[in-house]
Amino acid sequence: MVVDLIGGCRAFVSVSETGSFTAGAALARIPQPVASRRIAALERHLGERLFDRSTRRARLTPFGRDMLPTAKRLVRLADAMEHDAKRAKLRPLRLAVPDICTTRRLAELDAEARSLDLFLEFRLALPGERAELVRTHEVRAALVAVPADEGIWTLPLGLASAVEPSAAVIHLESLRPGRSGRPARRVWIQPEDDVPPIRDRMFRIRDSVGLRPAQVAVADSLSSAAGGVLCSADLLLCSADQARELGLAWRPIGETQLARGFDVVAGLGDDAHRLRTQLWPGIARCLGAAEPGEAQ
């Protein structure tokens, strides 16, 4: 027979402090019959009576007096364990995220996680930094850039401009410099896309269609790239969601289909599983990725 040792000790201590099974049960926040059953089970387990039941008050037997200090220590340890467990559940999971995530969407993701008793703390970082932060234990998990076909979350990429293009797609070959003397249009790659699966493919297309090397370049920051696009005919490589946020007109790339891919790296497998499953929709919205059945 399995004995609820902690429950029995809690009832034992409460009844001993009040001198009454009824008052002790109320102190332990359990019905009086439950307190009596737990104490009786504890007595059977220990092999001796804890209370003298021949009197109206619940008086301790000599054995009960000897066992009371140990029972109190066990109850205090159980209370401390419950307290520590509550604190541990409130300890935030530090998550490294791309700087493409807006404050509003991070707040929405945080609120969604809280409804699942998961508390997040975000750290914005560049693609090359995020996995390293997990390795050095500065964060517990990170959303890392991966090839699109390996991603748990994916975002199609295209080109965005300040002026609405007339064509349904933008071909990079259309950016070849002419003889007009006007400055050649450039395509800016933001730091989040400065990863081999995206950057290297853009450079290969640039070279194959005859653009100048400087016409496809990595920007120092998203803000500087977007600022340059807003005041010129340049283009920004970005997702449709980012283009809407920046007030730019977005079109797919004619020569290729590019997409960002993201997955989770975590020190603990449980953290990675919760982020990939329970928080999949919230992270998708935070990244600007389409959920299943949604159009970009």
Automatic annotation (TrEMBL):
Q: Would the keyword Transcription regulation turn up in this protein's UniProt record?
A: yes
Q: Does the keyword Transcription regulation apply?
A: yes
Coiled coil located at which positions? none
All copies of domain HTH lysR-type, residue ranges: 10-61
PROSITE patterns xref list: HTH_LYSR
Q: Name one Pfam family in it.
A: HTH_1
Q: Which Gene3D superfamilies match?
A: Winged helix-like DNA-binding domain superfamily/Winged helix DNA-binding domain
Family under the similarity heading: Belongs to the LysR transcriptional regulatory family.
Question: Which PANTHER family does the UniProt record give?
Answer: HTH-TYPE TRANSCRIPTIONAL REGULATOR (PTHR30126), HTH-TYPE TRANSCRIPTIONAL REGULATOR CYSL (PTHR30126:SF39)
What is this protein identified as? LysR family transcriptional regulator
